[in-house]
Design a protein that fits this description.
With about 350 residues, the protein is mostly beta strands. It has a single domain, classed as Pectate Lyase C-like (3 Solenoid), CATH 2.160.20. Helix content is about 10%, strand content about 35%. It is built from four helices and 37 strands. Helix 3 links the parallel strand 1 and strand 2. The radius of gyration is 21 Å and the shape is globular. About 45% of the residues are buried.
Length: about 350
């Protein structure tokens, strides 16, 4: 069997070793059908700069080590456009797993479309600004069952390495068991992210089994700024959307048109729906937040750095509350009646109009 695969690989890449790099880079599209060919194609195209696409045929792609994307302008997508048709997975959702991150992005203009990624020791995808990542797009994907946060954005504390202009849209983030493996989990955990758009995604069951609440389904903090979080569905997650954390703040941005709902009584650490912590110049508008648990607040704004905030036209079943000397203008927010709350469930179609 080993000899068979060697023959296949050699036939597939025949000429790569002798062709000039311009010839390889002039080919716009490559179609692959297993993890060996995927990894070898990525390596073969490492010196190319022009836009190229790797198309994955339907099947399961078992990863034994992190797939590193180090070249600019690369797209990886499924042939069908249906994320369930291509599953890329590590060995386990465990702190002893061999695969740390399934994908690690250290390049500009990377795009991932129409695939499922699951099972990792750390993150399903790390987007590393400290190593050159910029302008990433993750669309129409399923991200499932990581031992830590599903998508992690980093910048190594270098202000000029913050990742700009990311897009994550039409994706599903979930824990398939209905609860996470520990508390140190989240959906999108973005440090130093600027001008991202997180739109029309669904987050399910990002909930801690013990010790304390999980991290947010969507969290931008630690020198993040001017991000837009809109029209997402967050179902049974301990915490919904966060800008900033303590004194590691966020500046500006919009949280609008999101539906945040929690009714799972087995999630013991359920917390706030939307939280602003040291997040000035922020707009929170047109969100629907229904939390059927004991935490008292639907929306919170915290710490003295949180000022010049507008919170308007939100519908909630719990309080909108200031903490730790934060300041905001509250306009036209509505506290829902018990009858209105009971008319909504996790399948509710939320229309801000």
């Amino acid at each position: 069997m080993i000899k068979y695969w060697l023959i296949i690989i050699c036939c597939y890449f025949i000429g790569f070793g002798v062709q000039s790099t311009p010839t390889i880079c002039a080919t716009p599209t490559f179609t692959v059908k297993n993890i060996i060919l995927l990894e070898d194609t990525i390596k073969a195209l490492a010196q190319c700069d022009d836009p190229q696409t790797i198309i994955l045929t339907s099947g399961n792609y078992s990863v034994n080590q992190t797939i590193n994307i180090t070249r600019d302008n690369l797209t990886i997508k499924s042939q069908t456009g249906e994320p369930k048709s291509v599953v890329i997975f590590g060995d386990a959702m465990s702190d002893t797993a061999k695969v740390g991150n399934v994908l690690r992005i250290s390049a500009k203009n990377f795009k991932l479309s129409g695939v499922t990624i699951e099972k990792s020791k750390y993150h399903l995808i790390q987007i590393a600004g400290e190593h050159g990542a910029q302008n990433p797009t993750i669309e129409n994907c399923i991200l499932r069952d990581s031992y830590q946060q599903m998508i992690k954005v980093t910048y190594g504390k270098q202000q000029n390495k913050r990742v700009k202009n990311g897009v994550i849209e039409n994706c599903l983030f979930e824990y398939s068991a209905g609860i996470g493996p520990n508390w140190y989990i989240g959906g999108i955990d973005a440090h130093g992210a600027i001008a991202w758009r997180i739109k029309n995604n669904t987050f399910k069951n990002i909930a801690s089994p013990k010790q304390q609440e999980a991290e947010h389904a969507i969290h931008f903090w630690d020198n993040s700024e001017a991000n837009i979080i809109e029209q997402n569905r967050i179902i049974n997650c301990d915490r919904g959307i966060g800008f900033g954390l303590g004194q590691q703040g966020n500046s500006a941005g919009i949280i609008a048109g999101n539906f945040i709902y929690h009714n799972n009584s087995e999630h013991r650490f359920a917390d706030v729906g939307i939280a602003l912590e040291s997040s000035p110049n922020t707009l929170v508008q047109d969100n629907l937040v229904i939390l059927k648990h004991n935490y008292p607040n639907a929306i919170e704004y915290r710490f003295a750095a949180s000022k010049d905030i507008l919170i308007s036209n939100n519908k909630t079943n719990k309080a909108i509350k200031t903490r730790n000397s934060a300041q905001a203008i509250l306009q036209k927010n509505i506290m829902l009646s018990a009858e209105q709350v009971n008319s909504v469930n996790s399948s509710y179609v939320f229309d801000i109009n």
